[in-house]
Design goal:
Keywords: Membrane, Transmembrane, Transmembrane helix. This protein is an alpha+beta fold. Strand 1 and strand 2 form a beta hairpin. It folds into four domains: about 55 residues, no CATH class; about 35 residues, no CATH class; about 180 residues, no CATH class; about 120 residues, LON domain-like (Archaeosine Trna-guanine Transglycosylase, Chain: A, domain 4, Roll), CATH 2.30.130.40.
Length: about 425
């Protein structure tokens, strides 16, 4: 077996050990009055123990560190190379033994494995501080370039996350998906009609008009995995399909089918991912005017308010902008399926700051008087957390806020 220590290092180490152990032996013989044979025996034992420790320390110091230990000290491009080495090959071209079987799998099998540890943000809106975290966006994309590609391009990972979110908070996510369908869908009698299924989980659009067929991405639908979740909840699968078709139509009308906010094509999410993102950005996150007055309200229990302060006269005027004249004269609001009730944020707890809880209220009846004051009937629809709040300049103190709608678990905990 070859020596683990170079010859020069071995000679120097042996000399040091001999000198140190001889000195220790002489001191021990004079201090303990040992005989010469006992002193020599103690010298040999000490030399063996001390030499073994020195050799182990020298051997460990001369060995290269494993790749995953070196990552902590790397930076910039070297760190990215090291991360890529975890997934495929190290710099010398050898495959890391821990991942040797994984790299031989097909992409579909890799995605299936990642689906067990993949979770998108806001799947569970049960806690203000943790709901924004998710392995699908904040962990897996930073493992390797291949993982990042899967997270950006795999419909399956995003579709499974959307199914789990629907199961965890059906009211919250169904509202968001229906909002997409009613806002961007083609028409109620076509895009909202139940699609037929040809038996393999792919929607048959042959009976629809050509413009509707252009809306639905057949390739995307065929690449989804109905075996995972579609058969378990046909209604959820149908709802997701319709929402994806509506999102496809929305982006087809601008920027050649790509979201206007994405300038790098490599960062564009798949169709289901864009649908998930839209629900999070435009439904779970809600921005609007703030009415602030401590008090107690219960979801579903309507109550009336009288707006007389200048800032709240401005609030109700902005919220009711675009409504038919009759809706401003005290008639019950009659909204169709493609228009939602006007909403704003009612913060009923102090202080007005990040993390404070409030409610989103719907205007069900409104009478705006000639002097700008207003009598309104409101319906609390969803508890929220305040994420950001600021005062609009030139409005006499009217505040705006961005809030996060609570899921069912957080709402139940708050009500108790």
């Amino acid at each position: 077996m070859p020596s683990a220590i170079p010859p020069t290092t071995s000679i120097l180490t042996s000399t040091i050990i001999t000198v140190v152990c001889t000195a220790i032996g002489l001191v021990a013989r004079s201090y303990f009055n040992l005989s010469l044979p006992l002193s020599f025996f103690a010298y040999l034992v000490g030399r063996w123990m001390f030499g073994t420790c020195i050799q182990k320390m020298t051997y460990q110091a001369t060995q290269p560190q494993p790749q995953h230990f070196r990552n902590a000290s790397l930076s910039g491009g070297n760190k990215r190379k090291a991360l890529d080495g975890l997934n495929n090959e190290t710099e010398d071209g050898t495959v890391d033994a821990r991942f040797s079987y994984f790299v031989e799998l097909t992409d579909d099998m890799k995605v299936a494995i990642l689906s067990y540890v993949s979770e998108a943000p806001y799947e569970h809106c049960s806690d203000f501080h943790v709901c924004r975290r998710g392995t699908l966006t904040q962990v897996l994309p930073f493992v390797s370039r291949e993982f990042r590609s899967f997270c950006l391009q795999s419909n399956i990972l995003w579709k499974n996350s959307l199914h789990r979110a629907l199961n965890a908070d059906p009211d919250l996510w169904e509202e968001g998906l229906l909002q997409i369908i009613n806002t961007y869908g083609v028409s109620n009698d076509k895009i909202l009609s139940p699609p037929s299924d040809n038996g393999d989980g792919v929607v048959d659009l042959s009976r629809h008009e050509k413009n509707i067929a252009a809306v639905v991405d057949n390739e995307t639908e065929a690449s989804l995995s109905p075996k995972i979740t579609d058969d378990d909840d046909p209604y959820a699968a149908d709802l997701i399909r319709r929402a994806c078709a509506a999102i496809k139509r929305k982006y087809a009308n601008n920027n050649n089918g790509l979201p206007a906010s994405h300038y790098d094509e490599t960062n564009v999410l798949p169709l289901v991912g864009l649908t998930f993102q839209h629900v999070v950005m435009h439904h779970i996150h809600f921005s609007g005017q703030v009415f602030y007055m401590p008090g107690r309200v219960n979801l579903g229990e309507q109550f009336g308010l009288f707006f007389f302060e200048p800032r709240y006269r401005l609030l109700i005027r902005e919220v009711m902008a675009g409504q038919p004249e009759q809706n401003l004269r005290g008639h019950p609001l009659d909204v169709d399926s493609r228009r939602n009730f006007p909403e704003f944020i009612y913060v009923n707890q102090a202080p007005l700051r990040r993390g404070t809880m409030g409610v989103v209220v719907q205007v069900r009846r409104c009478r705006i008087n000639y002097d700008g004051t207003a009598d309104v009937m409101l319906n609390p629809s969803r508890h929220v957390w305040v994420e950001r709040v600021w005062e609009r300049p030139g409005t006499g103190g009217l505040c705006h806020a961005t809030v996060i709608r609570m899921g069912n678990a957080a709402t139940d905990r708050f009500n108790t």
